[in-house]
Amino acid sequence: MLGSRWRTVMHAQLDIGEGAVMLGRQGAEFRPPRPNEVSQYVHVHVGDVDEHFENSRRRGARIFESPADKPFGERQYTVEDLGGHRWTFSQSIVDVAPDEWGATSARPK
Predict the structure, then answer these.
(1) Which residue of 78, 96, 101, 108 shows the fewest CB atoms closer than 10 Å?
(2) Domain spans of the chain?
(3) Does position 24 have pLDDT exceeding 50, yes or no?
């Protein structure tokens, strides 16, 4: 039983073999997307995020966020493809413990 205090899950990571699938939500509530609103995105790990970014930019991807180092140890950028889908490409740059950047594990302690 959960009790009276609910936690909002912003994203979850499912580890599968050598890879992972991250599930996340946009916005502050669950509801159908409005016109011109993102309701999903794809997150992909790449070997060199800066090189990947330049290739995406040259090919006409709409840039939402240029490559930047994140507090959770990733360097990433976000683009929209010609079909209107958001993609976040990420490269691991340093191992950072989840509690050091404010994450809360869903695993039982």
Answers:
(1) 108
(2) 38-95
(3) yes
